[in-house]
Amino acid sequence: MKSFKTIPHIFLTRTLPEAVMKKLNRHFDLHVHGFDRPISRRQLLRGIRSADGIISMLSDQIDREVIATAPRLKIIANYAVGYNNIDLKAAAERNISVTNTPGVLTETTADLAFSLLMAVARRIPEADRLVRSGAWRGWAPTELLGRDIYGKTLGIVGMGRIGQAMARRAAGFSMKVMYTQRHRLSVKEEKSFRAEYLTLARLLRTSDYVSLHLPLTDASRHLIDEKALRRMKTGAFLINTARGPIVDETALVQALRENQIAGAGLDVFEEEPRLTPRLRQINEVVMAPHIGSASTDTRVRMGLIVLENLKAVFSKKSPPNRIW
Ligand code: GLV
Ligand code: GLV
């Protein structure tokens, strides 16, 4: 089954779903970091040393030093759509391909973003805790009152694939959709999403829900800072399923504590898995442990994309999802 002249040595930093492991093993000399927990820097440096390719997680920092440790490296296949964990310049200098897994996780991630939006608006985790605690005394006219979603305004920051998938979900709830990003969509696209283009400042001022769907770059780091949070309506919610450092988490904690905004739904954090002090004490926050793409089907599909990219590089073809 192995179709390459010599079987490439692939270092995998974390165990992937069974169906993916089987296929990877069939095609490659696969070396897997032995324990199903995040790899340490030392283990990463050791593991990559004799590798022809690495399958990295978004939590692995593939920086210049790591890349320099691997003289044979031909590809860094990131098991994620985001790739802010990789030093693209250092990879490019060595002509090492860098690939990601776009497309397959779009709907799954938008599902989670919308789930967080609904969960925080309708206070579902608080409601669950009440019922579970045994303290519930029966139906009450003023208990756990949340906010409506239907008919409200959703502001999407970053109208790429996931942002657009979010807009489609919002249409089902008769939401008014605004978006902002560097490049405006065509009039036809705007019509199809029934989305209105605004500057970030105006979007923040008018949205009941602000949902982030942009990559982490130097330009987007702390895009949602103290000033941006102050622009938001007092009844508004912030949803982040993109990358933690896009939001200044300290400023967010402050804004929530001072009731400057109504709440937040967070799947990503500035320094995962660490939380900014006091974030966990705030009731108006719903948190998930970076599970945007975590459905069984999607995690398998992401693995198959990684496999296709590896196969391409070792057959001397251009990998389908090359970032660089
Ligand atoms: C998840 O955060 C991803 O980038 O795939
Ligand atoms: C992810 O697939 C995106 O580009 O939004």
Task: Report on the architecture of this protein.
By secondary structure, the chain is an alpha/beta fold. It folds into two domains: 9-102 and 295-314, Rossmann fold; 106-287, Rossmann fold (3-Layer(aba) Sandwich), CATH 3.40.50.720. The protein is 35% helix and 15% strand. It contains twelve helices and twelve strands. The chain has helices spanning 18-27, 41-48, 64-68, 88-93, 106-121, 124-133, 161-171, 187-193, 200-206, 226-231, 249-257, 296-314; strands at residues 9-12, 29-32, 53-56, 75-78, 97-99, 153-157, 176-180, 195-197, 209-212, 237-240, 263-266, 285-287. The strands form two sheets. Strands 8-7-6-9-10-11-12 form a seven-stranded parallel β-sheet, sandwiched between helices. Strand 1, helix 1 and strand 2 (29-32) form a beta-alpha-beta unit. The longest helix is centred in the C-terminal third of the chain and has 19 residues, at 296-314. The model has no long low-confidence stretch (mean pLDDT 97). The structure holds glyoxylic acid (GLV) (2 copies). Residues 58, 80-82, 105, 292-293 line the site of one glyoxylic acid.
Oligomerization: single chain
Rg, rounded, reads 21 Å
Based on the coordinates given, report the CATH architecture of the largest domain.
Answer: 3-Layer(aba) Sandwich
CATH top level class name of the largest domain: Alpha Beta
* Overall outline: globular
Query: For the record, what is the CATH homologous superfamily label of the largest domain?
Result: NAD(P)-binding Rossmann-like Domain
